[in-house]
Amino acid sequence: MIDNNLDFDIALYPYELVTYGETGQVCQNWMQYRLIRKYLEVMTDEQTLVVMSGHPLGLFHSHKMAPRCIISNGLMVGMYDNQKDFNRAAAIGVANYGQMTAGGWMYIGPQGIVHGTFNTLLNAGRLKLGIPEDGNLAGRLFISAGLGGMSGAQGKAAEIAGAASIIAEVDDSRIETRYTQGWVSHRTSDLAEAVKIAQEHQASKQPCAVAYHGNIVDLLEYVYNNNIHVDLLSDQTSCHVPYDGGYCPQGLTFEERTRMLDEDPEQFAKLVDKTLQHHYELVCKLHDKGTYFFDYGNAFLKAVYDTGVKSICKNGENDLDGFIFPSYVEDILGPCLFDYGYGPFRWCCLSRNPEDLDKTDAAAAEYIKAHNRRYQDFDNYVWCRDAKKNKLVVGTQCRILYQDAMGRMNIALKFNEMVRNGEIGPVMLGRDHHDTGGTDSPFRETSNIKDGSNIMAEMATQCYAGNAARGMSLIALHNGGGVGIGKSINGGFGMVCDGSERVDQILRQAMLWDVMGGVARRSWARNENAMSTVREWNDTQAENGFMITEPFIADEEMIKSLL
């Protein structure tokens, strides 16, 4: 999985050990990489490898049911948990920015986020544009920015959802990669041509993904000045590191941006601030014309606020109550998916045999079709059924599939059975850290938690500890993720299906915990869909040792009368 993260078809800067997100590294240097590889080659099933910010601390005696690898990245003491002190720690070699699945060794290319992006776009259409549950985004226009490691999924997701889309990207090499891989269908550096292609597809209700080589702010100026209606609008530039190259100022080419970043970082930062503020102004103007804008968890709104724009805050003063535009989790993914436990389950066929992936796709689709309880299940069935046709694989033969707790466990058990029966080779299970219970991030994953606990980091930490206790093969806990240092604590896991009864035992214990801990926290925050999910869970799973604490909502009129 480490080498998959550094595959040239997948990694952003493989020579620098950067997998995605501009700075998300597998480890800090090649000496660490070589030593990690050596330890993994010689370790026994009664040893655990401990890795701290890329540094392999060593092999420690454990037992057969313990994790084989425990990873942490960038975890800092509170008073030093800021970008300046992190940069110093990274410079002296004691901190690594693991992003999410980069330092957690579970990245699967742009496919890793494409199902979530598809779900976000489709459900945005249902919730905000009146699209029926059995409809798609045909005839609608989606505009965004970024074609990097994670943002590269936007064009493909829009096409699968039926939309006409334009994705701006300043780095032509990234456009070349996505175009070659089939993740965008058109490319141009001409604004008028980009819009013309999208409008033609919109009119014929055919999907398209146009990569516009240029700045997103130029694109938004063009559509606003030409009175072109945009249905859905977002941004996936790397705003968690806007002053380190994650965001390109208007008026600079990618090459000029890179040169100024090196030669005049102070002036570069000033231009970034100016462009962010203008970008925000254009978002507001398009919103006033009926566009639905959502922050795609890249810290765009936080970056605007950090330039001094207080009008972006709900309370007009600070970011404690969030921003006037919603995070995609706050409005869409949280209530529609996370609160039920649906999240980005994934697996990799370690044989690298496409036939093994076909067989796992078929097994997953068969399970979902037989357990079709909600509209989300049918969406997921169609996703799995059509996965091969949509040509999602980049790198190793892997698949992303949103599933709830029972779905993940039962599909995982089925895969382990298939390995045991010799139908397929070994399978590595995992998920994105961006999940129901895997990440605490008040501007993203926990943005739809409104009881005040969105600023706490206990859910992700408990999830990590619980997965260790239950024996997942690999566990990881990181600082930062997609929103930046000090703004998120996130964790994930990997589990090798080798066909053994030992793995069956771990899957039955760990897969349910990994999901339901997050649903339980969301339920206690009084999220309606999470409350109903926990209520049903307690009714059906009590005999299996579960008893989740449920909130009981006070009668507001009774409280008022007593006071």
Overview of the molecule:
- The chain is an alpha/beta fold and 563 residues long.
- It has three domains: 2-91, no CATH class; 111-334, Urocanase like domains (Rossmann fold, 3-Layer(aba) Sandwich), CATH 3.40.50.10730; 341-544, 3-Layer(aba) Sandwich (Urocanase fold).
- The chain has helices at residues 2-5, 30-42, 83-91, 111-128, 154-160, 172-181, 191-204, 216-225, 254-263, 265-288, 300-306, 328-336, 354-370, 375-385, 405-420, 458-470, 501-524, 528-541, 556-562, and strands at residues 18-20, 24-25, 47-52, 55-61, 69-73, 141-145, 164-169, 186-188, 208-213, 232-233, 292-293, 343-349, 398-403, 427-431, 439-440, 474-479, 489-497.
- Strands 3, 4, 5, 12, 13, 14, 15, 16 and 17 form a nine-stranded mixed β-sheet that branches. Strands 8-9-7-6-10-11 form a six-stranded parallel β-sheet, with helices on both faces. It has a two-stranded antiparallel ribbon with strand order 1-2.
- The longest helix has 24 residues, at 265-288.
- The N and C termini lie far apart (59 Å).
- The relative contact order is 0.11.
